[in-house]
Structures are given as C-alpha cells and as structure tokens.
C-alpha cells in the first residue's frame, strides 16, 4: 500500500511588471527538488480581475482564489509573497 502524497497548495500571483514574469517563482525551486511521488503541488493562482484599479483587481482575485482553495483538501500551503501570505492566513482561519 503506497501512502497518499502530501497535497501542497502553492499560492502565487502574477507579477505586476511584465519584466519580472521572465524569472521563475520560488515555487519552482522547491517543487522541483521534492519527490514527485510524495508531494502533489496544487496551484492556487491569484488572478487579478479586469478592474481599473490595480488594488481592487488583486483584492477580487484574492477573494476568488480563497473560494476556490477552500474547497480543496490541502495538507500544507506554500506562499511566495505578501498577498499570498494574507490569503494563506485567511485560509488558516477559515479551515
């Protein structure tokens, strides 16, 4: 009997400046080093909406990602930046 893999929720957001989208996020460095049969990475992207205000667009994207992530059975969360950490705290408080 093989153990079920650890479900790792990887919360990430796209970069505000398109220049920075060329660089890999921290998730890639960690997930590439973990054994694939023991860890399953579940992406939870924060996708901003098409709002004229950038702050409001990211807030709406965080709320959508929160609703989506609440339905997932996750064992751990991996966050990359402040927005992801805030979403992770919301998920911890809700679940």
Strand and helix map with partners:
Elements: E1 6-12, H1 26-33, E2 39-45, H2 54-70, E3 76-79, H3 82-94
Parallel strand pairs: 1-2, 1-3
What is the structure about, briefly put?
The chain has 95 residues and is of the alpha/beta class. It is 40% helix and 19% strand.
Q: What is the number of helices?
A: 3
Q: Strand pairing plus helix content: what structural class?
A: alpha/beta
Radius of gyration: 14 Å
Distance between the termini: 29 Å
Number of strands: 3
Uncertain spans, ≥5 residues at pLDDT below 50? none
General form: globular
Give average pLDDT, whole number: 80
Estimate the strand proportion: 15-25%
Could you give the order of the helices and strands? EHEHEH
| Helix proportion | 40-55%
Strand order, largest beta sheet: 2-1-3
What kind of sheet is the major sheet?
A: 3 strands, parallel
Structural notes for this entry:
The structure is a single chain. The chain is α/β, with parallel strands linked by helices and 95 residues long. It has a three-stranded parallel beta sheet, covered by helices on one side. α2 (54-70) packs parallel to α3 (82-94). The mean pLDDT is 80. It is 40% helix and 19% strand. It has helices spanning 26-33, 54-70, 82-94, and strands at residues 6-12, 39-45, 76-79.
